[in-house]
Design brief:
Strand content: 5-15%
Number of domains: 3
Shape: flat
Low-confidence stretches: 188-197
Radius of gyration: 57 Å
Largest sheet: 3 strands, antiparallel
Helix content: 55-70%
CATH class of the largest domain: Mainly Alpha
Amino acid sequence: MSVTQVFILIVLVLSLGIALGRIASKLFYQYEERRAEKKIALILQEAKLESVNAKKEGELKAKEEFIRLKSEFEQNVGKRREKLLTKGNLLKDKEREITQQLGQLHRKQLALDKVKEELNQLKTEEAKQLEVIAGMSQEDAKQQLMQVLEDEARSDVSLRVRSIVEEAKNNAEKEAKNIILATIQRTVAEQTVENCSSIVHIENSALKGKIIGKDGRNIRALEAATGVDITIDDSPETVLLSSFDPVRREVARLALQALIQDGRIHPTRIEEVVEKTEKSIDKEIMNTGERTVIDLGIYGMHVELIKMVGRMRYRSSYGQNLLYHSREVAHLAATMSSELGLNTKLARRAGLLHDIGKVSAEKSDLSHALLGMELAKKYHEHPEVCNAIGAHHDEVEMTAMLSPVVQACDAISGSRPGVRREVLEAYVKRLRDMEDIALSCEGVMKCYAIQAGRELRVMVDAASITDEVAGALAFEIATKIERKLQYPGQVKVTVIRETRATSYAK
């Protein structure tokens, strides 16, 4: 055999071996697969049997547990039924006892009703016998007894009320005096006050001609720039400045002093100096207002009100500087409010602003108290502060506890000896003139000027003056006072008509 044939034979043998190996392997795999399937089927069959057995065992256990619980429940129900039957029997026994007791009570009630009827009959017979003996009916006796008891009770109540009122008045007056004295002692105030001067002193009379200028042009320019009246007369070394506005008067005074020191006095220079002085005064007014509110511990006040506080520095009333007066009232009101347990911050604020209407630049026919109240409302001040401002001269009703405090402190500050410069004779004459005007009217018996001339109380004859005529009389007296007298603020006229009935017990 050739090599080729041998090679081909070897290849055929190998191919045949491979094919047989694959066939054998496939048969082996098939055999193993069938064997595994049989094993799996056997395992599943065993598992089914086990699950069936477990299910049967669980059902048996559940039935046994159900039977046990049912038996226990029946036993408990039986015990409870026995207890309920026992309680029911006890309740029936108690019900029988209660029924028997109710029957006994009913019989006793009937007996009591019978006894009451007998007592009422006896009382009626006794009352009839007493009426016959006393000679008056039962109702008359009751009325007489009630009248006596009522009179005694009224007398006792009247005496008790009078005693309580007198005691309260005495204690209140004593406490008020103590508070006022403590307030005055704790407030340090100057006895001498500053007066806003309207006189400018010059070194020599030769300067008067320079101030007047050629054909009076300098003095006219100064009057036009400042809005004040300048009087240069024969008084030695003095120039008089007149104006209703204290700020304008102060601007004119400072400007004239600056011009005299500078020596250059002509219309152009006058306008420059006056303008510069006005700016300086405005700045000083604002600084004064700010310092005042800071010193008093007042915060959150409107800028316009602060400016008005600064303007008080240049305003006086009867020689008393308005700013010093307002500061003093603020301190007094705060001290008095602390003694009374009121709000000291609002009291200090109301005391400072109570005369703010005197320095308002607005033209109004209202009094300074009412104008000040309107300004305070305009700039969103607290309602109690507004009421205290408007009521400190009794022009509006006092609705806040703070209002009488501010009124009292204003009177304390203004009535101290030496703080105001009013001639005593003129003051007394004004009060007498007010009383004489009232006494000149028909039907007036007496009259009294009180509250430092701010109020006039008129006593009239009740027989000749009726209530309707009293109102007309008050208006008539107020009109005569307006026409004939000059006075600060306003005067309240009160006509009092009183009817008295007098009887004597002997």
